[in-house]
Write a structure and sequence with these properties.
The chain is 28% helix and 25% strand. By secondary structure, the chain is of the alpha/beta class. Strands 1, 2, 8, 9, 10, 11, 17 and 18 form an 8-stranded mixed β-sheet that branches. Helix 2 (41-54) packs across helix 10 (371-384). The radius of gyration is 22 Å and the shape is globular. The chain starts with a helix and ends in a 16-residue tail after the last helix.
Length: 417
């Protein structure tokens, strides 16, 4: 069923009681052409583009929990493409372009809001660095503007422009096409669209091992039994190293907790995404009025989806230093998502050295914004056996050859220094 004004009217005549389920409650078949392990945004988008772009519909997505219960529902929903390095710049801009047409492509409103992102600069040197970044973006056809202090004050007057500001604002970089999307809607939209192409979405199905025929992987062992596959793709967010180890892969990945926070609802205040250049803090305002914000990693390895109070204090200090007006706003809730962190803070999408096994992981801070492009490129890689040109820089062997993609030295450890 396509969602439309007419379908809303027609179902209204029956009291909205005859809507079809968004996707089927599928049970596993004996074998598939492709199995995607992980029913988050990247796994679901991969399944959708396998069917939509390549006509491969005998596909299963295996999710150990429920759709929307992992990192796709545990993030701060920010979308942007203000990257500096060749490889990252083109990939994330392609993702933004897919976001711009995603609701129409999925026939599902993902609530993409291009409200713009402002990153504040707190020294003349930092503003120079932002100018360099803006020039790189413009050379790649990406919108970018450098703002002086007065222009920043005009757009975001609630920031601390006082003489006693802890880190005085010198200017900012603005990407007007950046924004946010509703993370649950992204998961539901891709799941529904993939199901519409015949993809089996199998929830509460944990992968416990891999089936081999010689050196080739030909299926998976699951909590619902053995399932055969022509190809297996891993897209399991914070548990990539766990599944990789089961397949015999030792990956350069650490898992860390990244917390996010929501305040009580406020009247409209923050109409951009604002990132604090003096610390790792970023904030936007949801349609329900809550301020949604995040900060740094918790700083130790963990697979737990909960954080520690030390980071709550650190992020709150940054929030109040940038926006003193929210010092008495009450925190409503916060949550932790498990991040795969690579040494250079860039992802890995490629065939692995194990025949039949493909990898999509290591997304660090950038997973949600990359969802459409990640699925598009991973589907191409699975369908053709060769990496999509946009992910040529995201090969696993770059850590062996030294061709790393260290955007800002924001990996989990200073291994490269």
């Amino acid at each position: 069923m396509r969602y439309s004004a007419f379908s809303i009217f027609r179902n209204g005549l029956s009291g909205q009681k005859n809507w079809q389920r968004a996707w089927r409650a599928a049970e596993p078949k004996p074998t598939y052409d492709v199995i995607i392990v992980g029913g988050g945004g990247h796994g679901l988008s991969t399944a959708f583009y396998l069917a939509e772009n390549h006509g491969i519909r005998n596909v299963a997505v295996l999710e150990k929990g429920y759709i929307g219960g992992g990192n796709v529902g545990r993030n701060t929903t920010v979308i942007r493409s203000n990257y500096l390095l060749d490889g990252n710049t083109q990939f994330y801009e392609f993702s933004v372009k897919l976001w711009e047409g995603l609701s129409q492509a999925l026939n599902f409103n993902v609530m993409f809001s291009q409200r713009g992102q402002i990153v504040t600069a707190h020294s003349a040197d930092q503003l120079d660095a932002f100018s360099h970044r803006a020039n790189i973006m413009r050379l790649n056809g990406i919108d970018a503007d450098i703002l002086d202090r007065d222009e920043v004050r005009r757009l975001v007057p609630y920031l601390d422009f006082s003489d006693t500001a802890r880190f005085p604002i010198h200017g900012a970089i603005l990407q007007g096409r950046a924004g946010t999307a509703r993370h649950d809607a992204v998961a539901w939209g891709y799941a529904r669209a993939a199901d519409g192409h015949g993809v089996d979405i199998i929830q509460n199905c944990e992968v416990t091992g891999f089936v081999r025929d010689g050196d080739r992987i030909v299926g998976v062992e699951t909590s619902k039994g053995r399932i055969g596959a022509g190809k297996v793709g891993l897209a399991v967010a914070g548990h990539t190293s766990v599944l990789g180890r089961k397949a015999g892969l030792e990956l350069p990945i650490e898992s860390h907790v990244l917390q996010a926070f929501v305040t009580e609802p406020l009247k409209p205040l923050v109409d951009h995404v604002v990132a604090y250049g003096a610390d790792h803090f970023y904030v936007s305002q949801s349609d329900k009025g809550g301020l949604v914000f995040g900060g740094n990693l918790d700083g130790y390895n963990s697979y737990a989806q909960r954080g520690n109070l030390g980071v709550v204090r650190e992020v709150s200090e940054a929030a109040i230093a940038l926006m003193p007006c929210i010092s008495r706003v009450r925190l409503l809730r916060h949550w932790g998502g498990v991040m795969d962190m690579t040494p250079d803070a860039s992802p890995i999408i490629c065939p692995t050295p194990i025949d039949g096994l493909y990898l999509n992981g290591g997304w660090c801070y950038g997973g949600f914004k990359a969802t459409p492009a990640s699925g598009w490129c991973f589907a191409h890689t699975l369908a053709t056996g060769t990496p999509h040109p946009l992910i040529a820089a995201y090969r696993l062997d770059r850590f062996r050859t030294g061709r790393t993609l260290d955007e800002a030295g924001v990996g989990p450890s200073a291994w490269l220094q």
